[in-house]
Amino acid sequence: MENCHVLLAVFPSQGQLNPSLQFAKRLVKMGVKVTFSTSSSAINRMSNRSEIQGLDLAPYSDGFDGQFQGVSVNDFWASVKTKASAALADLIAAKNQEGKPFTRVIFATAMAWAGVVARRFQLRFTLLWIQPAAVFDIYYHYFTDYGDLFRNCSGDQGVEVPGLPVLTVRDFPSFMLSKTTTDDLDWALQSLRDQIEEIKNEENPEILVNSFDALEFDALRAIKKVRMVGIGPLIPSAYLDGEDPSDTAVVCDLREKSSDYVEWLDSQPKSSVVYLAFGSYSDFPTTMLEEIAKGLLEIKKPFLWVLRELNTGEKPEEKLGCKEELEKQGKIVCWCGQVEVQQHPSVGCFFTHCRWNSILECLSSGVPILACPVWNDQLSNAKLVQDVWKSGVRVGANEEGVFTADEFKRCIECVMGGGEEGEELRKNAKKWKDLAKAATKEDGSSYLNLKAYIDEMLCSP
Ligand code: UDP
């Protein structure tokens, strides 16, 4: 174990940093030396980074250093790719010169270029996949043997591929429907294709997945050429195995939390609050926010709603006609500790944009889900929530992705109401919570999978 030193390379977005830091903490706890590399602007915002003892930090410049106004995702991604590749190569070379080389590179989703750098130094690498195994399967099938099947699918026609439920177009990750050609792939599709290529070129590839066996048994085993190992949920220990009650916080909030929402939650009846949040960067158009606001007022339930400031500094709630009325009924905040909120006894359901951390954190909290996917893997995640895990409902929207206040209300009544369907959803939500906890305990599948990975892959001579 002594010479076992991992370089963990992470894209500087909230959704990558949160689970990657939890992963790093687990490796450190299991005796592995970890150097965590992400952008300097993200590292500077890590509030309590000193709490992760044994973790070395290796910042790289993302090229903008905190000045993101007006920068497109495409430009940001391209800049990180160039700058991080060079920085990782320098770091690996420096460690080699010191005579204390890294033994493996682990890179999180969207960092396929780290695999290219690792290969240049003859270092083995592992992908840490921060989406469901099922979504990896979809991309793998799409970029290998089943591309035409997906491309030729339309309307309600179903696609059947190994390890997955029958999927229709509305369940495909949105990037797959991108109109770009193969010569001009947009950044997301290109990054995903690169990732699959890297994995295919690797001998006996193994992927660590932020998921767990009981949740995705078949999907984790769907691709014969790739060994996928569930090691999640990667959320703080206090909310899972309870081994470390002090481990309650994600270490890296890229935004400042609002202050008084926990006291407000404490004052609400059990399972009464609708919690609404759309992750760290997706924005809903004002028309959609208006429908949600109208639905909330009609349903008359307390709510906690995260509405982030826009890049321009504007507050989305200021554009809502009924802001004052809303604030009498519930609470609008600009950022909160999401896992803490989901696990609060007064929360009764979670209205989400369906990105993976939000979903997995919610499955671990036992709260039913109102799925409102817009793009990316959100569409597939919503399908899994509704039809496979049966712990939530998908809000029905028209072709432009717009839904009405009535539909919003119908879904809340369904997941929180006394009917049979709601009871079944809540029972399933509770089941996933128990299984998530069990997976991360010392005799659980995720714990044992990670231990085996460390013993057999990371630290074997
Ligand atoms: N999150 C949070 N507070 C908020 C909203 C989100 O701590 O008010 C966290 C959430 O717990 C999750 C991450 O931000 O870990 C968002 O990741 P996700 O994959 O859900 O969405 P993305 O930001 O990638 O769209």
Structure explained in plain terms:
There is one protein chain. This protein is of the alpha/beta class and 461 residues long. It has two domains: 5-246 and 439-458, Rossmann fold (3-Layer(aba) Sandwich), CATH 3.40.50; 261-437, Glycogen Phosphorylase B (Rossmann fold). Helix content is 42%, strand content 12%. The chain contains 17 helices and 13 strands. Helix 3 packs parallel to helix 4 (112-120) and helix 4 (112-120) crosses helix 7. It is globular. Residues 14-15, 18, 277, 279-282, 306, 335-339, 355-358, 361 line the site of uridine-5'-diphosphate.
Task: Kindly summarize this structure in a few lines.
The chain has 461 residues and is of the alpha/beta class. The chain contains 17 helices and 13 strands.
